[in-house]
Amino acid sequence: MQPFWPRRSPHFLACRQAVRPFDGPAVIGLSGGPDSLALVAAAAAEQKDVSVMVVDHGLQPGSADVAERAAAVAREFGFASTVANVTVGPGNVEAAAREARYAALLEQGRDVWVAHTADDQAETLLLGALRGNPSGMAQRNGHIVRPFLNIRRADTVGACEELGLEPWHDPMNDDPAYRRVAMRQNIVPALTDLLGGDAVPALATTANRIAADQALIEQLTDLTPTTSCVELEGDAGPVRCRRLARWLLDEGVRVQGDQLAAIEALVTNWRGQGPIAVGGGRSVARIDGKLVLVRA
Fold it and tell me: Do the domain assignments include residue 21?
């Protein structure tokens, strides 16, 4: 099909303006939902050098059909589009699916464009704060690029309506059993009511500032992962925590704030305490002056 760009389309214009500063070659991660579908459409309108990959996690009945339909829409916009089938590992479904998805996208050896919006940024900040580690997503983090980080979910949904596109709505995105969904459905609206106005812009701005601070710290400081207690003890507290967190992430371990504090105490307040459980049947222990991951 020949793409149709309506003359009056304020939401789609916001999407187009958002992608203009970014150049390919890149691969867009397309789920078929409104955010990523709007990103594909905006990239087509701006004639960006991108291809498209749809990752099928195989978590729901009919996921193969959903993936193929999304890939077909991307082809109609003129992009090379493929479907990658991945196996989601054990543990937290959201985290394992995300890990498998990014691994497949990054295998292409190009920048990966994903369609996180300011609403996602606000939710990420709040979820991190509940874990004792408020954080923000960077617009560019290595090969991961987020062109839509400063526009709203209303723009991506509105753009699809303006273009006559029919996005797929993942039923998991409506399931409050997932923390991010519960945050979106309950906490963010409650904060908006409390403030008497939209809470997302302030939350997203705070998250953007935290992400910028994190990037600056990484530029100014050696954050090479290490397990040497002598080396870690000489670091300033924030640097030490980030080095520990990076080491654990490299090992596939995500920790809560209280867990990270307990692990830090193995370095700074060593009294012979036992290993710290970090999930997945693993613990962090101090052995011979080093931190090691052991099977619990």
Answer: yes
State the residue for tokens 């996180």: 116
**H helix runs in 186-278, sequence order:** 188-195, 200-220, 229-233, 237-250, 257-268
Q: ∠ CA 284-285-289 to the nearest 5 degrees? A: 130
Q: Which helix (H) or strand (E) holds 144?
A: strand 144-145
Contacts with 256 (C-beta within 8 Å, 6 or more apart), sequence order: 131, 132, 133
Same domain, 151 and 233: no
CB-CB contact of 86 with 57 (8 Å): yes
0.90 surpassed by pTM: no
Q: Across the strands, what pairs with 85?
A: 56
| Rounded Cα distance, 189 and 267, in Å | 41
Query: Which residue in 179, 178, 157, 212 sits closest to 36, CA to CA?
Result: 157
**Partner residues linked to 290 by β-bridges:** 228, 287
* Identity of the residue numbered 64: A
**What is the amino acid identity at position 146?**
R
Taking Cα atoms as reference points, which of 166, 164, 160, 159 lies closest to residue 13?
159
Which residue matches tokens 């002598």? 230
Pair (108, 244) in one structural domain: no
* In a shared domain, residues 42 and 142: yes
- In 3D space, the residue among 213, 199, 188, 195 whose CA is nearest the CA of residue 136 turns out to be 213
Per-residue model confidence as pLDDT tens digits over 140-182: 988 999 999 999 999 999 999 999 999 988 877 788 888 889 9
How many domains does the chain fold into? 2
User: Does residue 72 contact residue 38 with C-beta atoms inside 8 Å?
Assistant: no
Q: Give the end-to-end CA distance of the chain in Å, rounded to a whole number.
A: 57
Please check whether residues 32 and 117 belong to one and the same domain. Answer: yes
Q: Write out pLDDT tens, residues 149-160.
A: 999 999 999 999
Q: Residue for token digits 């504090």?
A: 261
Distance, CA of 182 to chain centre = 17
